[in-house]
Amino acid sequence: MSLGRLLVGGFCACAVSLGLGRFAYTPILPLMGIDTESAGWLAASNNLGYLIGALWASWAPSEKERHRLLNFGLALVALSLAVMALTRDSLAWNLIRLAAGIGSALVFVLGSALVVPRLVQMGRAKLSGLHFGGVGLGIALSGSAIAWVGSWAADTGAWWAAGGLCAILSATSYLCLRHLGKPQTGQVPPPTRPVPFPLPLLAASYFCAGFGYIITGTFLVVVVRATPGLEDWANWAWVVVGLAAIPSAAAWGWVAEHKGYAPALGAAHILMAAGTGLLGLSGHPAMVFLAALLYGGTFLGIAGMAVAFGRAITPDHAARTMGILTVGFSVGQIVGPVAAAQLALWGGWTPALLMAAAVILAGTPLLTLGEIRRIRLSSYRSEVPRPSADA
To answer: pTM here?
Structure first.
């Protein structure tokens, strides 16, 4: 398989999985005519589906089965977006969003599991950031093309547009990646020494990121539309999120490579918390777009770095670690929108967004504690005398 087809197929898969499967909902939400509490539960249903799909993906026993489930997920996401237009029933919507979450996880987890190792095998591991950048494309499309359709065809037309765009991207991904079902061949990379960082601290910080990031990701357009004078700029703020997300995984991967995973993750947590808090505190157009830039430029980088860091901590048990991190992140995503919606009903969006910022920020000291322990363990190991050859 050519490098170009691999990257295009993976890029489109990421655009389908999170960019549209999860986040097409964000600009369509204000058009749906539902209350804040119902919106929170819809987001939670989608994120519960993502947890189910991620666990399902982890059980795939072979390359062939992973590829089959990837294709199933591509079709499921496109179909679930389109059928949202066929009903106004709240229970049906929740079930459909649950299915969309399952499909999104199958595509994101298995697409990455099939594409990234082949990039490594080709000696192009650093291009994996381009693969994840597809999420940003999907977000940008949802804030531009899909939102434009919704402006004259309401939420029904927007859901049809989302399903249609998703079908095109799914078909492109399928055509580009259709040969990935064959088992990998080639040299197996040598084993790496585990990084002595406490996995529970990384998982806890990843939970904090999941809890906070999904609140902004779900309600950003609603919040901006509710800000006097910014009603017409809400979708463009979401486009800024998508454009900032496209290069973010690659950029943060470079930072982590040069500064270390824990410092890079800590910095990303601080910047995302700043963007979230700024959105809640300021209604000035420049501040809103800065908040969108900070959010879009960090959330995908945090996800990519956390997963890569987890693999570095337990290189011999990468799949198990991926499962632990995914569960923690997903629980945060499920709880976050419901908690934010309840808080918004009580005191408006400012306390909800400040809560999200505080939880995101809480991940930084957890990472700092882990880094201190890593440094101490590394120093201890370097000081332990090695047995001499004559012993």
So the answer is: 0.91
